[in-house]
Amino acid sequence: MDVYEAIDSRASVRDFTEEDVPRSTVKKFLEAAVRAPTAGNIQPWRFYVVRDGKVKRGLCEAAWGQAYVEQAPVVIVVCADLEASARGYGSRGEALYVIQDTAAAVENILLAVVAEGLGACWVGAFNEEAASDALMLPPSLRPLAIVPIGHPAGKQRRTSREPAEKYTKYV
């Protein structure tokens, strides 16, 4: 599958089968994530691969009961190392670059998931403090995305998009 096909095929999947996702496949997702662009090559991302039911339950609760977080066989939580970005770029690194870097890593994960014929959803609606508690994160790490991953159950529903021209100005 080429990158354009993966981009066009990507959809938010919120219903998964019980079929497991092999460790080797998850490793591919993580390798794709670390190939994302990163300010100053700081690589402030930290990945928590969650398979433990109790921890997934805590993440589900942190995500205000979004059940598919707990249902997915594997969940990757993408965190930002705020201190690493601050060391490189001060407050701008901590407030902006760290978010850009981790967002790029999440998108690479999502595209790799599609390329492997699986489904995922980028969950940003969650209580960061509760997610941090579920993962027992140190204060320097900020959870920025919860990504449940698995084999889609049923047909995927893709949302429509406006043409790029609607949002583009050439100057």
Secondary structure topology:
Layout: H1 3-9, H2 23-33, E1 45-50, H3 53-62, H4 68-71, E2 74-81, H5 82-115, E3 119-120, H6 128-135, E4 141-150
Antiparallel strand pairs: 1-2, 2-4, 3-4
Helix pairs in contact: 1-5, 2-5, 3-6
Structure in a nutshell:
By secondary structure, the chain is of the alpha+beta class. 43% of the residues lie in helices and 15% in strands.
Architecture overview:
- The protein is an alpha+beta fold and 171 residues long.
- It has one domain (3-155): NADH Oxidase, CATH 3.40.109.10.
- Helices cover 43% and strands 15% of the residues.
- It contains six helices and four strands.
- The chain has helices at residues 3-9, 23-33, 53-62, 68-71, 82-115, 128-135; strands at 45-50, 74-81, 119-120, 141-150.
- Strands 1-2-4-3 form a four-stranded antiparallel sheet.
- α1 crosses α5, α2 (23-33) crosses α5 and α3 (53-62) runs antiparallel to α6 (128-135).
- It is globular and about 45 Å long.
- The N and C termini lie far apart (34 Å).
- 36% of the residues are buried.
- The model has no long low-confidence stretch (mean pLDDT 96).
Q: Quote the distance from N terminus to C terminus.
A: 34 Å
CATH architectural group = 3-Layer(aba) Sandwich
CATH top level is Alpha Beta
Number of strands: 4
Tally the helices. Answer: 6
| Global outline | globular
Give me the CATH superfamily: NADH Oxidase
Q: Quote the CATH topology.
A: NADH Oxidase
Strand-and-helix sequence, N→C? HHEHHEHEHE
Into which percentage range does the β-strand content fall?
Answer: 15-25%
What integer is the average pLDDT?
96
- State the share of residues found in helices, binned by percent: 40-55%
